[in-house]
Amino acid sequence: MNNKISIHNLCLSIDRQPILKNVSLNIPTNKITVILGPSGCGKTTLLKSLNRLTDLIPGVQQSGEILLDGVNILNGNQDLVDIRQKMGLLAQRPYPLPMNIYKNITYGLRISGRRNRQFLEKRVEHYLKMVNLWDEVKDRLKDPASALSIGQQQRLCLARGLAVDPEIILADEPTSSLDPISSKLIEEKFLELKSQYTIVLVTHILRQARRMADYVVFMYLGEVIEQGTPDELFNNPQHPVTKSYLSGQFY
Amino acid sequence: MIMNTKTEEKFFRVLMFLSTIFIVGVLLLIVVSVLYKGLPSLSFTMLTSIPKGGFYFGEEGGILNAIIGSIYLSLGATFLAFIIGWPIALYMNVYLVKHHSLVNAIRFVFDVLWGVPSIVYGAFGFILMVFLGVRASLLAGIITVSLFIVPIMVRAIDESLKSVPRGLLESALSLGSTRSEISYRIFSREAFQGIITAILLSFGRAIGDAASVLFTTGYTDRIPTSLLEPSATLPLSIFFQLSSPIEAVQDRAYASATVLISMVLVISLLSRFIGNRRN
Predict the structure, then answer these.
(1) Which residues of A lie inside 8 Å of B (Cβ-Cβ)?
(2) Could you give the maximum distance between any two Cα atoms of chain B, in Å?
(3) Smallest CA–CA separation between A218 and chain B, in Å?
(4) How many angstroms separate the CA atoms of B64 and B69, rounded?
(5) Do B171 and A98 make contact, defined as CB atoms within 8 angstroms?
(6) B182 to chain A, minimum CA–CA distance in Å?
């Protein structure tokens, strides 16, 4: 298996409180890797360390290696804008930019200097169609994005992230604030998108993990307890903590 | 025991009610007494002419010098304070996100500065003027008043930027934005109404303050035509003319108070209105 990202011995602490303990794992290219675990186990922190959003946390200290295409992105002399553009982020709830729908999609392109109007218009249509939003918004592209429903906003955020042409999609419980229908749409999109993108999906919903995963990482209290294919992990868990989590003893 | 808690509850409810009534009453009394004295003297001439024969003795003329002077001064000071304060607030909320204790220290400094009496700013401005060899002028007043309102501007913008969700910052960074793009294209837009409120709040403070302009802007009958000339202001128009033994001069003071209180009221209502629309 080809790995897009390899993490070696990643440790992260906030004010000397360890959050991630010696995490090592591989994220395969063009697959959905699901990071599964109960709330507060460090899943989100792990995800955010991938595009170095953890840099924003006061009192954070990190050690170890995160190799993106073989290059360590933790060693300080990397262009952060460049790294972050390679990874689209879909957060727990949508955060549309304070501008209209059209500009939300073109924002990433405009800040990287793409200003040709025809090009931008084509891109907007392309990516809105990609997330099944085009038909719903094509007549009101100039409306503020905040006027959309939460489910639509989340799809808009996905399209906005895809428009900057990332290689990786980082999704942090992307369906947790959505209604069942919108959640299903997002899940279906991910299954389609994985042929072109490497997807890392953080979730605490066991059934979602079963539906989506090509590779599963189970975390508990800042440690990777077990990782493997869904078949290995769901049907034949080795570790007692994994077993009790899968049997629903805690969540 | 049950009786006791009930009496206590009743006592405090009555206390709160009376305190509220008292304060609202005092406010109404101020407004009514100013209007009672000021409204009769508010004539067209009062609002559109400058004092004739000197503001302290002349019985003719109005307060146009003070109205125009105050507007010049407050606009200039608010503009200057915004130019300084806006980037500070953005710096605190977009660039220093990782340095929580530093940001809190900066907030504390501005809160202290907010509490410094305006006469101290006036004195500071005066020292500065003496040092630079500048005389009392519109420019000196604008600089002094802007120093006085910068803390208000910074803290008010800061409060609205603080409420921008962290997730928006993370989303914008993930799209490959630099911090300055986030500051001006996203955070300022997201907090736009808060920023307008901050500007109005600062303007309201600037136009109403007497002590900071006392030494720095001076007072004159004329409408200034350059930044280096002294200028009249509404608060000082009240201060100087109310002490006159001549009734016509006193009327100008009451008229100034009426104009000033109406302006402040309109500004407060406007910022309230904008602030409410945000929610």
Answers:
(1) 48, 51, 53, 55-58, 60, 81-82, 84-85, 87-89, 91-93, 95, 97-99, 107-108, 111-112, 157, 160-161, 164, 170
(2) 74
(3) 25
(4) 8
(5) no
(6) 10
Q: Which one of A61, A97, A109 makes the best mutation probe of the B interface by having the most chain B beta carbons within 10 Å?
A: A97
Say if residues A62 and A51 touch (Cβ distance below 8 Å). Answer: no
**Residue with the two structure tokens 């500048």:** B134
Using DSSP bridges, classify how beta strands A87-90 and A3-14 pair: parallel, antiparallel or unpaired: unpaired
Beta-carbon separation of A111 and B177 below 8 A? yes
Split at pLDDT 50, 70, 90, the class of A21 is: very high
Q: Label residue B85 exposed, middle or buried (CB < 10 Å: 0-12, 13-18, 19+).
A: buried
B108-164 pLDDT tens trace: 999 999 999 999 999 999 999 999 998 999 999 999 999 999 999 999 999 999 999
From the list B165, B168, B176, which residue is nearest A84 (CB)? B176
CA–CA min distance B120, chain A (Å): 36
Select from A84, A95, A98 the Cβ nearest to the Cβ of B167. Answer: A95
Output the furthest CA–CA distance in chain A (Å, rounded): 57
pLDDT in tens, B25-48: 999 999 999 999 999 989 898 899
CB burial of residue B8 (10 Å; 0-12, 13-18, 19+): exposed
What's the sign of the alpha-carbon dihedral B213, B219, B223, B229? Answer: negative
Euclidean distance between CA atoms B273 and B277, whole angstroms: 6
Q: Are strands A198-203 and A32-36 parallel, antiparallel or unpaired?
A: parallel
pLDDT beyond 70 at B3? no
Going from N- to C-terminal start, the domains of chain A cover 96-165
Asked if residues A197 and A227 have their Cβ atoms less than 8 Å apart, the reply is no
pLDDT of residue A79: 87
From B188, which residue of chain A is nearest by alpha-carbon distance?
A98
